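Good morning,

Attaching, inline, the backbone tokens for the sequence recovery test we're adding to the shared suite. The designed sequence is right after.
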């Protein structure tokens, strides 16, 4: 399963990079395959382990912000691994044709 999610602290002003970094740190320390871009962090693994990391990433932001917004999108596809890499490689292969 791949989950792409974003955690946004509300009520802390316009500059939220420090809060987002706290959430990304939790993801990176999890040891699960992950990627972060300008809008989302994607993480790959089994349901329980991925959702636990998302929960902990939200909790670390919630500990410092009065309100938190979470956007989450999941690709649940049993039997598939290394989707973070293979999905991008497939698109790149089609672009090079």
């Amino acid at each position: 399963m791949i989950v792409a999610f974003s955690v946004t602290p509300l009520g802390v002003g316009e500059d939220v990079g420090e809060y987002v970094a706290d959430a990304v740190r939790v993801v990176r320390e999890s040891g699960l395959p992950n990627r972060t871009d300008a809008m989302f962090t994607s993480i790959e693994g089994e349901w329980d382990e991925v959702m636990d990391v998302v929960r902990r990433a939200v909790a670390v932001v919630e500990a410092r912000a009065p309100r938190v917004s979470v956007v989450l999108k999941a690709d649940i596809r049993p039997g598939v691994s290394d989707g973070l890499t293979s999905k991008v490689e497939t698109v790149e292969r089609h672009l090079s044709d």
